[in-house]
Amino acid sequence: MDYSQYEHLRFHNNRAFNLATGFKERHYQMHWHSYGEILLVGPGDTNIYKVNQTVYHLVEGDFVLIWPMEMHEIIDADREHSLVIQFSNTFTNSVFDLQRIMHFYHNLHVLCIHTHPELIRELHKIAYEMKEIFTSRQFDREIKCCMLLMQFMMKLDEHRDEFREELDVENRDSYSDDTFRKLVAVTDYIKSNLAVEDLSQSAMAEKAGISKDYFSRIFKNVTGMNYSKWLNLIRLEKAISLFPEKNLSLTEIAMLSGFQSIPSFNRVFRDEKGMSPGEYRKLSASDDR
Hints:
Layout: E1 17-20, E2 28-31, E3 36-40, E4 48-51, E5 54-57, E6 63-66, E7 72-76, E8 83-87, H1 89-93, H2 96-104, E9 110-111, H3 117-134, H4 141-158, H5 164-167, H6 177-192, H7 201-208, H8 212-223, H9 227-242, H10 250-256, H11 262-273, H12 277-286
Antiparallel strand pairs: 1-8, 2-7, 3-6, 3-8, 4-5, 4-7, 6-9
Helix pairs in contact: 3-4, 7-8
C-alpha cells in the first residue's frame, strides 16, 4: 500500500483515519479540506508552514495542528520524513469531548518541542504507535488508531494549563454532569438549526434551563471561546461544507448557514479566514476538494 497519498485523501462515511508519509515534494499549495491534520515535523534546517495568515518556522519534532476547514500551506519543509495524521470531521463531531477540545484549542496551531518538551515526548510516543499500527496489516488498525487519536487529544487537554496565557483562557469552573449534558443538547440543537431566527445566547441559555451569565461562563470554559465567536465558527463551518454545491450561490449559502446578510457573512469570513468567501471557494474548487 502507498502511504504517501498526502493531500489527496477523500474521506468517505466509512473512513475515520489516515496516515501519510514519504512525499518527496517540499511544497504544497494553500488549500483546505474538511478533515483535520496533525503534522509531526521532519528533519532539516528549513521547515516552514502557514496556517491561515500565520507563517511558522519549525524544527524537527514540533507538531502542527490544522483543524478541519482551515487554510494551510507547506511553504518549504521535509515531507519525506514528516508524519501526517489525518482524521475525519465526521468522527470528531460524533464525540462531544473531541469537539470541545478542538474548539478549545482552535487558535493553537503549533506545539514546540523546546517549550513543551514533556508533552511533546508523550505525543511522539502516541504518534509513532499510530504509525506502527497503521502501516501494519492488522484488520482493526483504524479503530486502534482512532483510540490513539483520542489519547493524543486527551493528553493535549491534560496540559491545557501550559497554554492558558497563550489562549487567554479563564480558570475553568466546575459544573455538574447534568449541566454538561444540557450544553451538549444545546450545541446539537444549534448545529441542526443554524437558519432559525433566534439563536441568541439568551435564548439558548433559556433552552438549557440555566441563567444567561452562568451559560456564558460555562460555555467559554468548555469551548475556549465566547458564544458569539463559537456560533460564527459553526456557521462558517456549515458554509464551507456547502461550497462544493455548485447550484448554490454565496447568498444562498450565507442564508442556509444562518448569516442575516451578505455583509455580515463577508466580514466574519474575512476576519476568521483572511479572505472573502468567493476567494476561499475558488481556492477549494481549483484544488478539487
